[in-house]
Amino acid sequence: MKRRLKLREAGAGYVQKRYYNRTDLTNMSNAPERFELFILGDGEKKCTEEADTRTPNSSIFTFNKEDHTLGNMLRAHLLKDPHVIFSGYKIPHPLFSKFELRIQTDGEITPKEALVACCRNLVSELEVFSREFTKEFELRKMGLGVLGRARYDDMAQKIVQGSWGFMVWVGYMATSLAVDLNSRDTRQLALRFRYFSNCKRCVPLAMDCP
């Protein structure tokens, strides 16, 4: 009985110690501010291009204040271009919101032209998604009645006023519609949103390259 009591006391002290250390980690005084993850500094460019001398027709684009969301999306859609031989990205350090995108083409177009074309294609796909989603959403509202329409409109207004704006509202409602309507087309729209939610940022990023 005494041995069990000692084990329990030791276990309780260990849990308290871990909880105390965890509290200290969350209150670090030297932690960077959250806005530094997405707001550019003074004189900092969103995207820069550097020629890769190791392989022909290749460039390395550095995107500041971005992460895997944009990097993986650009990489995947660049590989659909027949003129793109290689497309890959890496994040040099996990604590800094920056990634490097390497593009190699067959020589008919430059890496920058391939990147700009990819960004424009992503924007056009998002516009198609926006129209299709609006149609599905309005059809859904028509079947909800007066109270249901008021609930959806109120929820949409609150989310739009948030920091993420319209795109978070679209993603949330697309997921809701996919569950409620059980429609194959709507599920596809919700799935596509996961990949195209941020692609409106692509063209300004690519055009910012020198």
From TrEMBL:
CDD domains attached to this UniProt entry: RNAP_II_RPB11
Any single GO BP term: transcription by RNA polymerase II
InterPro entries, A to Z: RBP11, RBP11-like, RBP11-like_dimer, RNA_pol_Rpb11_13-16kDa_CS, Rpo11-like
Subcellular location(s) per record: Nucleus
Keywords: DNA-directed RNA polymerase, Nucleus, Transcription
Alphabetized GO MF terms: DNA binding; DNA-directed RNA polymerase activity; protein dimerization activity
Pfam families: RNA_pol_L_2
GO cellular component, one term: RNA polymerase II, core complex
Major localisation: nucleus
SUPFAM superfamilies to which the protein is assigned, alphabetical: RBP11-like subunits of RNA polymerase
Family: Belongs to the archaeal Rpo11/eukaryotic RPB11/RPC19 RNA polymerase subunit family.
Protein's name in the database: DNA-directed RNA polymerase RBP11-like dimerisation domain-containing protein
Native species: Monilinia fructigena
